[in-house]
Amino acid sequence: MNPITKLLKDKTLHRNLCLIDGEWVDAADHNHMAVVNPFSDEKITEVPVLTAEQVDKAILSASVAFNSWKSILVTARTAYLKKWNDLILQNAEDLATIMVLEQGKPFREALSEIQYAASYIEFYAEEAKRIYGDILPSPFPDTRIFIIKQPVGVVGIITPWNFPAAMLMRKVAPALASGCTCVIKPDKKTPLTAFAMMELSIRAGIPKGVINVITGNSGEIGQAFTASSLVKKISFTGSTAVGKLLMKNAADTLTRITLELGGNAPFIVFKDANIENAVTGLMDSKFRNAGQTCVCANRVFVHSSIIKEFSINLIKEIKKLKVGNGLDDNDIGPLISQEAIEKIEHLLSDATRRGAKLLRGGKRHKLGKQFFEPTVLSGISPDMEIFSTEIFGPVVTIVSFSTTDEVIKLANDTRQGLASYFYAADMNNIWKVAEALEYGMVGINSGAISSAYIPFGGVKESGFGREGSRYGIEDYLNIKYIHLKNV
Ligand code: SIN
Description:
It is a single chain. By secondary structure, the chain is of the alpha/beta class. It has 15 helices and 22 strands. The longest helix is centred in the N-terminal third of the chain and has 21 residues, at 107-127. The chain is globular. The chain binds succinic acid. The site of succinic acid has 8 residues, from loops.
């Protein structure tokens, strides 16, 4: 039996074909690619590499479905979404198991990601009812001015491997709630979670063509999205490099685009911070998904007067982390690939060569394969590559600072601007720092800030557009101004 199927209560949730116009379809030319378990390095299944014609068919199917989906009563759209949300929660354990097998994260985290993903559907099922228009005061005689909001149309959705469920639902839920239809391209490393969730969308009765899921050559699918006159918006979460390429290509068709790209989050601990809380917050932020999140603390700035106490407390907590197979009761799973491990090794060797001090870890874990030891480095400075690179692994880098102005300058010394965090007690300082940080999100005395209720997104090269909250649905809507004369 397939290694996934034997672990599932509902074996029919294991899907490895693409969803086009309500049908599960294989690659027309029988071309496939492997999905590999990052824990065992074994192939768990294969998924289709669709042909260009099949990709176009998926886009066309979403375009045809848009004509009816945009017009159905909002109560019906809400009902479909709520049913889907219920089914996802009912099948959360199976979905989490699929995610662990293809992504590697610990089961506990996978389960909480499924709940996090579902919370976007629940939120936007409600928000669909609040797509309000406006009547504006008119500067013209005998005239009324109305504003209505309409869905943009077909959305091309490209999602990453680090959160195979949450990043998907953060886009699909507001798209569907606003009346848009979509074509989804999950990351080729983690397509199975997306397929399983879409199987549940079928069971929720969401009409055919409203959601299509395709796998294949990433570059070609991105090109198909940006070149098609039927795709009216692209929403992408992934690397800054790919985001820039998509944006360049989208310029030709002026396709609207939302980009959630890489981060380089500062995590600042001021001298009046509660050190115990700051360590807990850092553990939450840094070691979630083995450090493979865009919002992970990437540079930890600690006031020089408390650096010793902070480091001792931190290492005490790190020693408690259990590393191993995500299916067992562990805190840190394997990293996604050998390249990820090699990148970390390179960053560590550059940092230590330039004077950083290794306080803990620093090498591949004895479990081998794709495991890396939870690591702490101190004495980090801006000339080291690790200071300006998104690490995407379980590595804490500590930078010492003395004044607020100095640390704000250091924290902002990056091209990224997604999440930032700081721990402090003085209210004047808190407000000053929150305003001065050049980031889309600021967590104060907290290392866990994500939710469906907040506008997630960045500034600078971390991209633009917001996901989640009432702001998130605006990205899927066009504003139309209606001018009515002779009133
Ligand atoms: C990300 O890493 O891209 C998102 C993580 C989150 O939603 O908290």
